[in-house]
Amino acid sequence: MAITKTLKLNGTDLIHGDSAMATSEVAPSISVTTTFRAPNPSDAVAPTSLADVDMRNPSRHVYSRYTQQISTRAEQILSRVNDGFALTYASGLAASYAALVFYQPKRIAIRGGYHGCHATIAVYKKNQGIEVEMIDLDSEYRRGDLCWLETPLNPTGESRDIQYYADKIHKVGGKLLVDSTFGPPPLQYPFRFGADLVLHSGTKYFGGHSDLLAGVIIVKTLEEWNKLHSDRTFLGNMMGSLESWLLLRSLRTLHLRVPRQSASATVLAFWLNSIAKTPAGQTYDGVPGGLLTRVWHSALQEKDKRGFEPSKQMQGGWNATFSILLAKPEHAAQFPHLLKYFIPATSLGGVESLIEHRLQSDPSEDPRLIRLSIGVEDVEDLKADLQQAFQKLDLVKAKL
Fold first, then answer.
1. How far apart are CA 331 and CA 357, in angstroms?
2. What angle, 0 to 180 degrees and rounded to 10, lies between the N-to-C axes of helices 92-103 and 222-235?
3. Which of 53, 63, 81, 291 is spaced 20 to 30 Å from 222 by Cα?
């Protein structure tokens, strides 16, 4: 299913999508209360029984483990911009665990991707006391399987074909979960290609300021949302009050941040790819060849043997996080510390550009791999920063 026009986020939805829940405050206050005054049954207009409260659009709040004003407002906006029914969690991995509890898969088809999700699956298996079989994405599926598809892929930023895996898993009655953390709105909309559940680490692009932990699950129906909400209530993995407020604040500018980050990352990916193609002994744009050997990015992917073209899936722009491969592990360890504007730190999606020697957080990764998360700085400044760092790295290499 291809939509030809470039997709854009509606800023009005982000700023006014929760207006039905607004009070006289222009900027909502942080709600710190855990409990709420019960209405007097003799004069109550709102429902007095918890069973009568609409948890998605509550006319009153009872206890913050169920609902509270700010997280509910954030969920209203997330639902609008993700074309579904959104629920927030304490972190991306909390949302991952909630998805496992929701589907209770017999087998999980997964390959690579974020190592944290693999660890969460291991915890789920231990807690359940059952053996959940792990199979490859391209294995044969059967009823009861869950296909766990991360796209674009962490850490490389390569795209996988959502429609292909949706068709494959649905043929046997299984479900498709898409971790779209690297492809937030408006970059891609997994429901349009057959996803059953969309997962995000809201810490990343939805938060966007490196100051909150959050997870988001989006499903297609209110019935599914209600089941997930009930599970969340008794798993106790909802967002805290401050984090909910920070998330709501951040969502207001999602349409300004993500397209800017995407455009800058695309420029840098193509520029770095030209450097990677430059032989040792030659230079490209002032950068010596032979230091950088490979660049991964969905914009650099060619059509695969099944005919998948990432541009038809990523209709609102390319991913803003991607990876490069340096020639030597010692170069990869030093490179992040030669930069001025890129901060050497893990995570991604923030307004500031981050760079990570990925081995530091994922011991299974290639020691030469560097992950870049592009922020909202001027792209020419970021390019110049990378340029001078490569030049310094070449001097370090010459002294060895």
1. 10
2. 110
3. 63
Using alpha carbons, select from 100, 106, 78, 90 the residue that is nearest to residue 18: 78
Among 330, 329, 370, 378, which residue's Cα sits nearest to residue 352? 378
Question: Could you give the CA distance from residue 211 to residue 214 in angstroms, rounded to a whole number?
Answer: 10
Give, rounded to a whole angstrom, the gap between the first and last alpha carbons of the chain: 53
Amino acid identity of residue 93, one-letter, is L
pLDDT in tens, 261-299: 999 999 999 999 999 999 999 999 999 999 999 999 999
What is the pTM for the complete model shown? 0.94
CB atoms within 10 A of CB 267: 16
Strand-pair category, 287-288 with 107-109: unpaired
Tokens of 320: 């803003």
CA distances (Å), origin 315, targets 7, 192, 376: 6, 11, 20
Nearest to 251 by CA among 86, 385, 104, 398: 86
The alpha-carbon radius of gyration of the chain (Å, integer) is: 22
Helix (H), strand (E), coil (C) string for the chain? CCCCCCCCCCHHHHHHCCHHHCCCCCCCCCCCCCECCCCCCCCCCCCCCHHHCCCCCCCCCCECCCCCHHHHHHHHHHHHHHCCEEEEECCHHHHHHHHHHHHCCCEEECCCCCHHHHHHHHHHHHHHCCCCEEECCCCCCCCCEEEEEECCCCCCCCCCCHHHHHHHHHCCCCEEEEECCCCCCCCCCHHHHCCCEEEEECCCCCCCCCCCCCEEEEECCHHHHHHHHHHHHHHCCCCCHHHHHHHHHHHCCHHHHHHHHHHHHHHHHHHHHHHHCCCCCCEECCEECCCEEEEECHHHCCCCCCCCCHHHHCCCCCCCEEEEEECCHHHHHHHHHHCCCCEECCCCCCCCCEEEEHHHCCCCCCCCEEEEECCCCCHHHHHHHHHHHHHHHHHHHHHC
Residue 69: is it exposed, middle or buried by C-beta count within 10 angstroms (0-12/13-18/19+)?
buried
Structure tokens at 23: 């009070």
